[in-house]
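hiii, so i know i said id send this last week but things got crazy w the move. better late than never?? heres the sequnce for the chain we talked about at the cafe, plus the structure i predicted for it. fair warning i was half asleep when i ran it
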Amino acid sequence: MDQQTLAARLASLVKSYDVRGASPEVLDADVARALGAAFAVETGVAARPDRTAGSVVVGHDMRVTSPQIAEALADGITSTGADVVAIGLASTDMLYFASGEWDMPGIMVTASHNPSGDNGLKLCRAGARPIGRDTGLSAIAERAVAGVEPADAAGAVTERDALTAYVERVIALVGVPAGRRPLRVVVDAANGMGGLIAPAVLARLDVEVDGLYLELDGTFPNHPANPLDPANLVDLQKAVREQGADIGLAFDGDADRCFVVDERGELVSPSAVTAMIAARELAKHPGETILHNVITSRAVREVIVENGGTPVRTPVGHSLIKAEMARTGAVFGGEHSGHYYFRDFFLADSGMLAALHVLAATSESGSPLSQVIAEFERYPSSGELNSRVADAGAVTARVAAAYADHEQDRLDGLTVTAADWWFNLRSSQTEPLLRLNVEADDEATMESVRDAVLTLIRQEATS
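okay and structure toks below
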């Protein structure tokens, strides 16, 4: 592939936090090979003049093109003299675990919750330290286009099991619940990597597991692996109700996010899960710092303060949150998108760790999950509402002007706050969309603010 074509493809593939796009149409073996070599050089594991070199851990999900992309990455990495430790099929948090535990930079081949025709790469330095556009990803892309001279001797590829040690670690971090009763759990893996890790972890607990779509299948034959879309939770909610289960767990494609359904089949807000885990972590680590992003419920901050912790508000985005966790020493961080970050897990996000906290809290209380979580769900919210606009900046400015007499901040997008409500308006990183989240003290106020802001936004909506 010539430099011009490679540069054009990488320009479309490189996002704020990862590499993602159509595969193999855009992200193919040639692109992956070039990125693998550039990654080895950028992370300092390529062969040095004394011919010593380091290693890179590589894992992949179950997408159709993932084995080919992973193999091409390994070719690129080993061409620099570095070695590859291949862990095969993995969840993203398993890749982060391996990177942290073995102190190696890592690459996970996945497009997370994207459609089946996409694929991508999530990259980290040794210790699971994230790599985003501004922290090395742009430099890797530039180096890939420039080309990397092969080493005198290629590195080697070895296979290594990470699942066993991963299961031990996540169980140890939360503990096996000393529950008052065994739980019945429905797991919807959406044919993603949750079908590998959830049974392996839950087999260690006193739970009865009913599985939905646990078979690994990158074509997603049952429904998309995106639990953020309520339509993709319908099967799980139905199964929980019909089977009389205590909890439902829904994982995205690479299983780094987990969404929770209570015994009534109702979705538990990720903000409520964040608040609950924050309280549990503060019980173990009194006075520590907890992070939450700009669109989590006001209840999260309240719970952190009530439990003696220090809340820190952050922008949305895993690279940003991980960096802030490292800066503040935070013990835990949560995002309303279903990402949960743990200091004791190399500052990385893990949907399985969050699920274990929910299971433990429910089992230990002896009460239904809806009652356990009730104290953390305090305010009505709109959920995330997306509007396609021609000029996100102009629309945001118009909304800001309309609320000029209210408190505003620009930590991430526009946040407007009043005594009994707030809203946040953010631009998508990848699409011409504005994302609106509204929360208020009561349903009527929330609906009134929601409708007023949407009217302002959609005056110039293109569709």
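btw The mean pLDDT is 94. thought thatd interest u
miss u guys!!
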